[in-house]
Structures are given as C-alpha cells and as structure tokens.
Amino acid sequence: MVVGVPREIKNNENRVSLVPAGARALVEEGHTVLVERGAGLGSGIADERFTETGASLASVDDVYSKADLIVKVKEPQPSEYARFRPGQILFTYLHLAPLPELTQALMKSGVTAIAYETMSDAGGSLPLLTPMSEVAGRMSVMVGAFYLQKTLGGRGILLSGVPGVPPADVVIIGGGVVGTNAAKVALGMGARVVIVEASPKRMQYLDDIFGGQVVTLASNRTHIAEALKRTDLCVGAVLVAGARAPHLVTREMIKQMKPGSVIVDVAVDQGGCVETTRPTTHTDPVYEVDGVVHYCVANMPAAVPRTSTFALTNATLPHVLGLARHGFRDAVKASDMLRNGVNVYKGHVVYRAVADDQGLAFRDLHDLLS
Fold this sequence. Notes:
Layout: E1 2-5, H1 20-28, E2 32-36, H2 47-51, E3 56-58, H3 60-66, E4 69-71, E5 89-92, H4 100-109, E6 112-115, H5 130-147, E7 169-173, H6 177-188, E8 192-197, H7 200-209, E9 215-218, H8 221-230, E10 233-236, H9 251-255, E11 262-265, E12 286-289, E13 292-295, H10 305-334, H11 336-341, E14 342-345, E15 348-349, H12 352-358, H13 365-369
C-alpha cells in the first residue's frame, strides 16, 4: 500500500501524523511511504529523518494523488477537500458533528473516512483520543492560569495564591480524561478544585484517586450555575463520543461569573460545552463575552507538538500498520475498534451520532460491506 503523510495546514498545527520509526515499520513491511516535504519540521523532525528510513519525500500533489491511505492529524481544511478520490482511506481526527460542510465534502468525494476520536474499544474507552485529551487537559489549566493575568484581561489572580492569600477556584465540567488531567495540574499548582460529573461511579473514582482533595458535584443546571459564580477558571471537558457536545454552561450562567474569570473550553472540537464558545486559533486564541475571557482553540496540543506528535503516533501506528497490511475491508473485519472509527464510507454516513446531529441518513457499515 502507498501511505501518504501530508503537512498539516490548519492554523499553527505543528504536529505530524507519522514519525520516522513509524515510517520505518511500514517500509520494512514492503509499503511505500510518501511524506510531504517539511511535514515534520513543526515537531522538530527534519526531512532527512524520514528518508533515512526508506520513506520518500514528495509534493503535496503527489502525496494525495498517489497514496491509498492518507494519515493526518487534524480534519481536512477546505483547500484539501478536492484532493480526495473514491476508495482512498483517510485516517485522522475528524470531529464531524459540528462540521456539516466537511461531512458533505467527504460523502461527495467517495473517500473512506476513519476518525481517531470515535475508535472505541470493548470497554467503551477511546484509546486514540486519550493521548491528546491528556495533553489538552493538562494544558487547559496552564493556559487558564496564564490568561488570569490582569494584563491579559483576567482577574489578576495567581492560581496557587500565596501565604495569607487564598488560591484560585477552578471548576472542571466533566470528569473524563480531559477533566482528570486538568484536575491533576490544578491541584499541583495549588488551586481549589471542583469537578462536575454526571456519573456517580466516576465521581467515586475521582474521589478515590484524588484522596478527597477535589470536590465532586453531580452534574445539573443548579450545581453548575452555583459553582460558576465562585470560580476563577472554568475548564469545559465534556465529551459525547462522535456527537456535538451539549451546552451545559449557558449565557445566563456566564453573566453571573466574576469579571475577568476565564473559560477554557476543550470541548470546542465537538462544538463546545459552553453556549458562547466559538473556535479560535493559536494566532488569535481569546475573546471576551460579558467580561469573561474565553479560550477556545480547537487544536490545543499543536502548541506542544514535540510531545503531542509522539504521544499520538504511539497510539495510531498499530492501526496504520493494520490498514496497510490488510486493506480496509479485512482490517475493519478484524478490528472492532477500527470499525467503530469509520464515519463515512462510499458516500454514506456510517456513524450514527454524526448522522443524528446533522439530520442525515444513517447506513450501517456492516450492511454496506456485505
């Protein structure tokens, strides 16, 4: 199989979808690897590191026109839509629920689109989303602490406080991977932490692992509203796999927050769990609504690409090898996780949450493969 690795073109997207070790593994199995020139530079990986493994450097036109399998990091940008062709496999983060234009483009192209973020295992966890959720969760508190500075529009609060001055209050909406990692950093920085979570079992788990250092609240409108009135930093960490995130933080709640408090909505990739969320970029990361600073960058881990690239490819490479080794049909028949990742196939939406969110017809992948 010919595997293509294009350079990411989303704003300040510095990650790359394959590292030299992965390229070597593919080449050793007899596959051809085409890497767009400069694809790894943002992650500190020179072109020569790829050619040393037997991969070939290519233009963006050759990568897309010759590859059977395109491996990316982020969802295709509008200028990339026309590059796909029927039967080509696209393997990347897609986050289609809030992106109907991209869904339509993928359906029209005839590409087979597999999303990292919907590849779930037998236990319901999302192994390919987890490493970037860990990065984004940890970054969220660091970013929030930065924007709490008065010179950047924040309240002028040091997250840890100092002796004689209390620390900041951090509210985390959602106690999954993002929320847990956000709590680790917030506690490590000395903040007072509240996690709002819907699952009683998860709340018990969080109480156990944090040894009672965090306060857990059952997720409902009243608890969220009351917690936000007191908070200095709110981290949105809600995930419904493949679906648009629910707006748990409303505009009315934001109006009751302290002036200069900060919201970091990590759920922005799936539309955001805050009503006033809109995607921003690393170039222009924040805006203000009702005196509250909003940070809603849709590719947060791209700011730490060296860490993020290697963490991501550790998780994705086995599946890239499986697709290259067996081809799409046999690979998805052999792997439930890979099959769960397929969102678009032969012009049809085959992931129900995306179809439901966008009002599209859903087709079962098993039926189409049969």
